[in-house]
Amino acid sequence: MYDLAGDTLSISSEPAGTGLAQRDRVPMSTRLLALVLSPLVCGCVAMPGMPSVSGSGSSGSSFRVPALQPPPPTLTAISPSSAAPGAFVTVILTGTNFRQFDTNVTIDGKGVSIMAFSVQSATEMTTGVTVDPKAVAGEHKLKVTTSGGTTEALTFAVLAP
User: Fold this and answer.
1) What is the pLDDT of residue 161?
2) What confidence score (pLDDT) does residue 112 get?
3) Using CA atoms in the order 144, 149, 152, 158, what is the torsion angle rounded to 10 degrees?
4) Domain boundary among 24, 41, 64
5) What is the rounded CA–CA span in Å between residue 142 and residue 36?
6) Residue 133: is it exposed, middle or buried by C-beta count within 10 angstroms (0-12/13-18/19+)?
């Protein structure tokens, strides 16, 4: 399987070579349908009718496979949205357009880190947040990124000890 997004797919047909008898040649006046499947595009493209060719020669046509951008993710809630220094918490992220194998979670600042995350559905994912025992109390910005874009940041707070 190849990623064809943004590429030009050329399909050509040539009449049967001299090794085939005339009766074995395939008429070239029919339409050719190319089926394009991808996570974002599924379609069938009709190639223009190809003229009959006799003797040696060829006829072909091409079309461009569209490169589509997935919709950007949104982040609407995180729960819990805070933790004490030294804690490890599993945080549930709620939003839209989360994508399996195409999502990343980041958090800014020192003393707080993302350990792992898992996409449950397009609207929910979980992530492990570790708060260093010496982390200073304050707010940190958590974001979700996919190939469609990056969410607005929501706040994850480190509580005072």
Assistant:
1) 86
2) 97
3) 20
4) 64
5) 37
6) exposed
Q: What is the pTM of this model?
A: 0.62
pLDDT per 10-residue tile (average), the chain, 161 residues: 51 47 46 52 48 47 68 98 98 97 95 96 98 97 97 98 86
Question: Domain containing 13: what range?
Answer: 8-64
Q: How many residues does the chain have?
A: 161
Number of domains in the chain: 2
Report the pLDDT value the prediction gives residue 60, as an integer from 0 to 100: 54
Measuring CA to CA, how many Å separate 144 from each of 71, 98, 125, 154? 13, 8, 10, 10
Kindly state the tokens that stand for 111.
């003393």
Closest CA to 95 of 118, 72, 128: 72
Report if residue 151 sits inside a domain: yes
Instruction: Identify whether 69 is part of a domain.
Output: no
Q: Which helix (H) or strand (E) holds 90?
A: strand 88-96
Residue 55 backbone zone (phi > 0: left; psi -120 to 50: alpha; other: beta): left
Let me know if residue 43 belongs to a domain: yes
116/49 same-domain check: no
Structure confidence at residue 79 (pLDDT): 98
